[in-house]
TrEMBL record:
This is Germin-like protein. It comes from Mikania micrantha. GO terms for molecular function: manganese ion binding. Keywords: Apoplast, Disulfide bond, Manganese, Metal-binding, Secreted, Signal. The keyword Manganese applies. Residues 60-210 form the Cupin type-1 domain. It comes from the Eukaryota.
Amino acid sequence: MASNVLFPGLLILITCSFALASDNSPLQDFCVADPNGPVLVNGFACKDAKLVQASDFFFSGLHLMGNTSNAVGSRVTPVTVAQLPGLNTLGISMARIDFAPWGINPPHTHPRATEILTVIEGSIQVGFVTSNPEVRLISKVLAKGDVFVFPEGLVHFQKNVGYGNAVAIVGLSSQNPGVITVANAVFGAKPDIPNDLLAKAFQVDVKVVDLIQSKF
Ligand SMILES: *[C@@H]1O[C@H](CO)[C@@H](O)[C@H](O)[C@H]1NC(C)=O
């Protein structure tokens, strides 16, 4: 009897191991993105391999400081398949994050990627929150040269805890990690999520929700 119950479970496990949320492995040396390709596939269609140039695998500018003059005091400079077409199908990307003094990268998640971060300059508090029901905050202050990993899909954040600028470089396990910023998604959706729904969800007055929605 027990094996009859186990068997379908095993089948599902085996099937699911081929349907992970992470990017698929490439089936050829490369598939440089052809954003104008007429074929709609998961990712981008491949540019003709004979026409591929070194420039398709190249990006320049990550030495440049991002503009942090904004409400949160940080700027992400992404290098994903959108900026570097050679990343198509390779399951990897990176970014530079600049922080003004006390600037933050607000709580957000990458639906398709684990993120690994290293501090190049300054001192940065990082953290992520585990899923329900524990919702445990795991947080640490990092110094230059330290490395921290944010597991795939979990809500995470960074904060410059120094008086000078801070810089981090991150790697992401997707050519197109995606970003869902919690505050924007919840309070800045277009059209708005109904304010009475959010008032109940956050256990506050509708006026508080209206105020927060007006900021996004
Ligand atoms: C940085 O961004 C701010 C706000 O958008 C803008 O006013 C300023 O000119 C920008 N600075 C540079 C150097 O681009």
